[in-house]
Amino acid sequence: MKIKAVLFFVLLFSIFPPLLRSEKLTLSGSNQLEFSLESNEYPAWRSFECWSEVVASYKWYDLGIRFEQHLPSDKDSVWDDLTLKYLQMQKQNFDVILGDYYTTFGKGLLLRSYEQRELRYDNNLEGAKINWNDKIFDFSFVWGKGMGEQRQRKEPLVGTDLKIDFLDWFKLGTSYLNAKPKEIGRTQLLGVNGEILLSHLSFYAELAEKYNPQNSFLPDKGEGVYLSSNVFSSGWGLSLEYKDYEDLDFSDEDLAYNQPPALTKEHLYVLLNRNSHILNPDDEKGFQAELNCSPISRSNLVLNYSLTQNHQDKDLFREIYLQAEYDLFEKAQLKGATAYRKNKEESGNPEGTFIASDLTYYLDQNKSLNFTLEHLFTENDGGGTAYSLIEFYEQIISLSFSRSPAYSITLSHERTTEHLPKKNWFMVSLDFNLDQRNNLSLSFGSRREGKV
Questions:
Q1: pLDDT score at 436
Q2: Among positive and negative, which fits the CA dihedral 51, 56, 57, 61?
Q3: Strands (DSSP E) along 234-346, which ranges?
Q4: The overall pTM is greater than 0.70
Q5: Would you call 370 helix, strand, or coil by DSSP?
Q6: What is the Cβ-side half-sphere exposure of residue 107, based on CA atoms within 13 angstroms?
């Protein structure tokens, strides 16, 4: 595979020799390197990961590669490879990509190919994508082999996506996908969507249907519905979303092609991002509502409520979140948050009550101090009887000094009363902006295992 990739780019550069000699050639690149040494095991655990990207641009052409090294990764796998290689031509109304690429149809009910490096997730497609657009029509054709979590390419899929912009306030679209996953057979998905944009109101709707092969172990048909609406005016905004997914999962072994919206709030606080809802496109429905307003000058209030159930009306995930923020005459910013969460997807049906306080004080235009306290109290049924009730709390305290844009230093301490071998963790983190293009982050100490 590596030899083929290298030969592919040697051939491309030989086809376009003027590119290498032209003054109009531009080169850009980036590199992300992460190294960790963990001494809680013997021998000490080492993790080294590196992502190197280079893009050469000449007139309408972009030639890009990404080389990754994981020796090993944080998932305990050792490998290195060219994970992204592509030639892209963009001229007037045409955009053509040959090689590896990412794309999404609508809101992801049919297809969502993307990279989330923090979770080491990458399901890019290897093949070709052609896009043509004008003032009214936007048409895409895709063909490609998706990459699974074990880094193996799957059977190719074929898809089309069409958007029609009739008026300034109304848009219509339709999508189609065809693939033959292993052990399932020929599968097809069809989707339609529409969007209305007015001065103080927007509305989006997307419907998807999945057709499984006959005589398979799957239902003949799956369906998905996603609705969203935003109402806004001076000083406030209201967002409403609804979902209903049934037998909509479109995957090939360890590769998931689609990922519809989960409709749970993405939090900035560490403790609320743990034990979050896990999307199940085969059996869930629910909604999310969020109010964002400024009741008084220099303030901001956010109220969010989300509920996810299965099709037997059993609650799976429920959360209510309130956040208040106030600016103290440009000298300080005070933020407070509280939340209640019930997650029946986790063992023990944990219920959590969360509070947080966040204070930032500005010493001058460049220097600031920040203090954050997070506290999460959890009740776990521990087996379903009153005598087995488990109660514990988790707490994170952090203090940071920042001199923008040069550097920052953060001290953080986490503790828990949960029944664990270790109950306290302390970390010192240093972040440096060496210049406009280079950043360095160093962390020393201990942290809780699992999702960070």
A1: 84
A2: negative
A3: 236-246, 251-252, 255-256, 283-293, 299-309, 315-328, 332-343
A4: yes
A5: strand
A6: 21
